[in-house]
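Lecture 7 notes. Example A: sequence first, then its structure tokens.
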Amino acid sequence: MAETDTPLYGPADEAAMRAALDQAALAYAAGEVPVGAVVLDVDGRVIGAGFNRTITDHDPSSHAEIVALRQAAAAMNNYRLPGVSLFVTLEPCAMCMGAMLHARVGRVVYGALDPKTGACGSVLSVHSHPQLNHQTRVTGGLLAAECGELLRGFFRERRSRAKALSEADAAPCGCGPDQPA
């Protein structure tokens, strides 16, 4: 196999993304947007894990990546995390990418693209801006279908629930469309 034929991701990468998907499932169960992240040290051990907690924490910065970075920084007793890898189920936003750059994360791997707020190429390319004193290696698409389906299912369920509530509110007696008035 030629060097250019080397697969982009190996079994350890897939296992790390599956751990991030497990975190995303916890977010889903908590009613949060299902995004999960894990941080691996240079030896491949998980030193941080997190899922979206913005609603639970009443904190707009409690994205999965930030939660995982905080755990990793505490585990390493340092805010700088050189050489670590962060796996996240959704392309990071500008805030999260900025935190990863400040932490000197060596590698970021994401699952699904985020065409609305993605900062790793979809909307912005924060990770590779030439004027920054640090760039982070970023690749995407690992288990993208699974990561994307979890998000689509969450929002499909949320829209369905909102529609049912709207229809119930529209009923004259407030009893809903399937109930006798």
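Example B, a different protein, same format:
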Amino acid sequence: LSFLVYSGKREGQAIVIRQDDRTVCYQWSTSESRWIEIGDVVGSQNPTKAMFEGKEYDFVFTVDIAENLPPLKLPYNRTEDPWFAAQAFLQRNDLPADYLDTVANFITRNAGPQISPAAPAQTDWVDPFTGTSRYIPGGSSQLSTSPPPESPSTYFPSDKFISLKTISLDSLLGKLELFISQIPDSPNGLLTQAREFSFHLSESDALRLTKTLLAAVARWPIDKIFPLFDLLRCLVFWRSACRLILSPDHWPRIVESSLTHVDMPAANVLLVLRLLANVLAADGPGYLNSPDTYDSDALVVVVNLAPTIGQICQNDKIDMGARKPHQIAFATLIHNLAVLGYRSSERHTVYTHVPRLISLPGLCIRTALRILNFAPEHGTSGVTLFHPDAVFTLLLAVGTALFTLATSERDSSTEEVLKTRRILFIASAAVGILLQDVDTKAMGETESELLAWERAQKILRYWSDTQTALPKVRSCAASLLRLLE
């Protein structure tokens, strides 16, 4: 340890010292004029690999983030992109995106420069929403700025609705019990009925629980009703319960307590977004199969609310970059709207029952691009502001919305003609949200649409080319560009 008595040459200089049976990494702090212990270095460049979660790595750093938190493991292989490894570490441990540069530079200093893999990484695709493929990240090649795009048909159009059914029932019941003890005007039997909830309830039991929950929603203060919303967003999978929840007697109170409330309560907004996504997943298939006989009232409510959803993501009180659960809820809702719009375009008769369906593709493109555009403003670190599943789902939504274009003429149109139509479609949809800093009145329609297309293209290129984005996101974005270029 005698080396530690000497001053470092620069801020952040790192050294690795053998200390008893440990290999310890220290970093020089100019402000404190001392070496600070960063953590143990486990693993090396010899054939003996370090293990982390069942996988072998060249290095597994043990990092102390804060005194009150347990040490975190930072695994790294020298064939990996340090920025990709840093992003994965931050997301796995739910750490702020501000640490990206620090972590990536730490990896580079202590593990040495990235080395090229012996052979190109093989990729297997399985779409998590259709059940056929999940992209398995391998070593990244530095010969290309983006992975080779899959065929667009690998992703687009997405024709399966996504449901959000996962629920932490024990935590929810604990919160309900607490609030019931604080609110004397709570409906009788609320906690008992809530304890019986499962996705195997009979139609009558689900309706009974729904009525009790809605009675509480009407009486409870706005800051206490989020556990009620959490159950209601699961109960929409029972048709009678769904109709009651979205009926004129109850739906206005739910919306006014969440999406249109002046304070935009974060928990309420999140759960109502999930509820809306689930309504589409629950009712969409039945309606599309039998549009003339299926009760479409609930779908009409959701589709009519879609323009409001597009405006909510711009609200400063919903900080999209800081709320990954909201990102996934928004993305799932937009995706399901895009799927409904696409599948409706194949059967024009459904428009007579839900007239606003015809406007869904443009709305989905506008809203998705608006959300996806938040990240480029922060450079490469903007990628870590977003949950990769949310980005992937938004890209699926954009591609699916584009497939609604000229559905009846698709078979008779050449690919070049279709690409031109798609570009015009995405440009006209994006003018209102991507050119807010431009005086479009002084421009011709063609000029403004061309500029909107260039900006939309830039957003998609950001997600296809930024090295810190997950491979499945980059490949999906590249495939989307392939539909347009």
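Note on Example B: The first strand starts at residue 14 and ends at 19. The beta strands are 14-19, 22-29, 34-42, 50-52, 55-57, 59-63, 72-76.
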